[in-house]
Amino acid sequence: MTLSIKGLALTAGILWGACYFLIGLANLIWPSYADAFLTWTASFYPGYNGPTGFGSVIVVTLYALVDGLVAGAVFAWLYNWLCNKLAGASHAAAM
Predict the structure, then answer these.
(1) What is the distance between the alpha carbons of residues 9 and 35, in angstroms, rounded to a whole number?
(2) In this structure, what DSSP letter does residue 95 have?
(3) DSSP character for 3?
(4) Are 63 and 9 a contacting pair, CB within 8 Å?
(5) How far is it, in rounded angstroms, from Cα 62 to Cα 56?
(6) Would you give per-residue pLDDT tens digits along the chain (95 residues)?
(7) How far apart are CA 78 and CA 16, in angstroms?
């Protein structure tokens, strides 16, 4: 069985972006919610300065969307590659 690289990339990107969007919105409503997490996030997403307003929610959502797209694509590609290698190894061992 192979994974769709495009399908998994889109799924991971949408889910990861939605998580950050909801966390950012919750932080706007309740300022102490996930404050430490969003401040930590600012350390690896350049241009994002932590929870400072709705603009920062959009910035972190876009970063998370791209991050999820890349991670999902790499995961699916690696899974497919390993499955092909293992299938070839087990086929060669059976001969």
Answers:
(1) 28
(2) -
(3) -
(4) no
(5) 10
(6) 899 999 999 999 999 999 999 999 999 999 999 999 999 999 999 989 888 899 999 999 999 999 999 999 999 999 999 999 998 766 555 54
(7) 19
DSSP string, 12-78: HHHHHHHHHHHHHHHHHHSTTTTHHHHHHHTTTSTT--SS-SHHHHHHHHHHHHHHHHHHHHHHHHH
Q: Which two tokens stand for residue 41?
A: 């996030």
DSSP state for residue 94 in the 8-state scheme: H
Tokens of 71: 């991670």
How far is the C-alpha of 84 from the C-alpha of 32, rounded, in Å?
47
Give residue limits of the domains in the chain: 5-90
